[in-house]
Write a structure and sequence with these properties.
Length: 116
């Protein structure tokens, strides 16, 4: 009877050791994933900072005014006085180019036959 008790205790201890082993590797995998996510977050924050700096550079009022002056005729812009209030519906925007028609491939002849 004592040997069965010892055997049961050994099996319980081995089971607990196996469980602790699996939990340790699961925890290590989760820690690795968290570290990877933190690295990705740091990279994305750095990219966001670069994009914000670039946007601030490109969105400068004097640069936008210079672009408007250079491209006023090509963009067909409407002059608006600083003290004038207008509705966006009143601005005459140029029409976008017409899209090319979509070709239906099922109506095209099948050219898979060899030609002499």
């Amino acid at each position: 009877m004592r040997s069965l008790t010892y055997l049961a205790c050994v099996l319980v201890v081995m089971g607990l050791a196996f469980w602790a082993y699996r939990e340790n590797y699961a925890t290590q995998a989760a820690i690795g994933q968290m570290a990877q996510v933190r690295r990705e977050i740091a990279e994305l924050r750095e990219e966001l900072g670069v994009l914000r700096a670039e946007w601030a550079y490109l969105n400068r009022p004097e640069r936008l005014r210079q672009l408007v002056d250079l491209n006023f005729d090509r963009l067909q812009l409407v002059p608006v006085a600083p003290d004038q209030f207008i509705d966006l519906d009143q601005v005459d925007y140029p029409k976008p180019p017409e899209p090319e028609p979509i070709v239906d491939l099922s109506t095209l002849p099948d050219n898979t036959e060899p030609q002499p």
